[in-house]
Amino acid sequence: MTNSREIATQILTDISEKEKFFETAIFSNRGFNRLDKRDKAFVKLLVLNTLRRNGQIIKVIKKLVKNPIKRRDFFVLNLIKISICQILFLDIKEYSIVNTAVEISKKYKLEKFVNGLLRNICRKKKEILLNIKIESNLPRWIGNDIAKNFGGNYLKKLSKSLIEEPLIDIKIKEEYLKKRNWERILNGKFVANDIIRIENTGPIEDKPFYNDGYWWVQGLSATLPVKIITKIYKNNHKKDISVLEVGAAPGGKTFQLIEKGFRTTSIEISNRRTKRLKENLNRLKYKTKILCKNFLDMNFNEKYDCVLIDAPCSASGLIQKKPEILIKNKEINIKELAKKQNLMLSKSKYLVKNGGYIIYCVCSIHSKETTEIIEKFLKKNKCIESVSVDSEICNLGVVIKNGMLMILPDTSKVRGGLDGFFISILRKKNDH
Ligand SMILES: C[S@@+](CC[C@H](N)C(=O)[O-])C[C@H]1O[C@@H](n2cnc3c(N)ncnc32)[C@H](O)[C@@H]1O
Q1: Residue 150 in contact with residue 201, Cβ under 8 Å?
Q2: Do residue 271 and residue 418 come from a single domain?
Q3: What is the CATH number of the domain that holds 184?
Q4: Torsions phi, psi of 196, nearest 5?
């Protein structure tokens, strides 16, 4: 276990110091790749739970450690975090947690400090647990915004749901839906007519029919923008409808647009993500026009029936699936993101035909990236009107604000809940 705990600490340090995402940090760690299945699962359990409980763990450290831990000792700080997480929140024997942490910290000559601190925490465990609120796990940049817009009770409810292991949604290609008993094959339950929900066990590539390209991973919330576009154009031949998708990788919405038969052009700025998008398209045996470019710098000769903006965002709606968001300081970042989202919207109004639609979506529930962006845009652009999201989609258990759709995690009637997500449907009445 010493090795697993050391590897978990390296991974946590990579995530916090190098701003790596969880998946990237795991797969780029050589030690992790050499572990057997059981130890890999243990490392993941340690890192994910420490990320989810980061706010509470920091409170404990601040209370019990007088002098702040020096920057060069960040590895030891992360070792302490992982150990505290095990002592307070995971059912693991205390002596093994403390002994292993002491052993690892010898390399840094901090074994006495680590030993004293962890033993103190073991002794005071009950008292500590009574005094660390679960809401502390949500950093201020998102916690304050949620409390202001949706209330303190919801904040508490959300904080509770974020420490649970998320489920995974799988979108089955329509052509294969009826051909197999997918619930049995994938060991899950349908939560929509084409989406099956499964437990997060083992690598996704090992699941049946993944390599055959019969399905892809996509949260139910994220399937709604294309479901909305399909409804808008339900009476049209889809091949006559041109859709420009902005921000396309890794591809969930592109695949849906292709499946429905829309004439799609997908733009993605990142080379690395475009490569992934193309690999996914190959696996699914889909083809479409992909442009690896910065949308904001591009010149267009054509106008589109519909522009789908899947904007880069803080991903605050996906905290359960990406708990690394909880340890990053997005306070400053969110202003930059909002600026970019705003520029994308402003540009898209020139690219859509009169009577055409702009669908703006983000996997965020932060007001600065959602309602505020749209309200400002509508105020400035009288040629654009907001269209209400239709009632069938609202039935998924959502909060509506001025016709916009905000899906809050843990408020949905769908079994297992939904990822946080925001959609606004905008229609261009005439030229600006
Ligand atoms: C939320 S993700 C898109 C998810 C994708 N639509 C899907 O369904 O799988 C946003 C994407 O926008 C891309 N992006 C950010 N700025 C961009 C720009 N200026 N032009 C084009 N793409 C951009 C990011 O690299 C990222 O892949």
Answers
A1: no
A2: yes
A3: 3.30.70
A4: -115, 140
CATH, residue 72? 1.10.940.10
Tell me, what's the pLDDT at 183?
97
Report pLDDT digits (tens) over 240-279.
999 999 999 999 999 999 999 999 999 999 999 999 999 9
Residue-number span of the structural domain to which 228 is assigned: 220-428
User: Which pLDDT does position 72 carry in this prediction?
Assistant: 66
Same domain for 232 and 184: no
Kindly give the number of the ligand 1 atom that is closest to the alpha carbon of 247: 12
Q: Rounded to 5 degrees, what are φ and ψ at 163?
A: -90, 0
Question: Does one domain contain both 250 and 383?
Answer: yes
Indicate if 49 and 97 belong to the same structural domain: yes
Q: Tell me, yes or no, if the pTM score tops 0.90.
A: yes
Nearest CA to ligand 1 atom 27: 249
The number of helices, as runs of H, and strands, as runs of E, in the chain is 19, 13
Residue from 21, 310, 360, 369 to probe ligand 1 pocket by mutation (most atoms less than 8 Å from CB): 310
CA of 35 relative to ligand 1 center, distance in Å: 34
Q: Whose CA is nearest to atom 12 of ligand 1?
A: 247
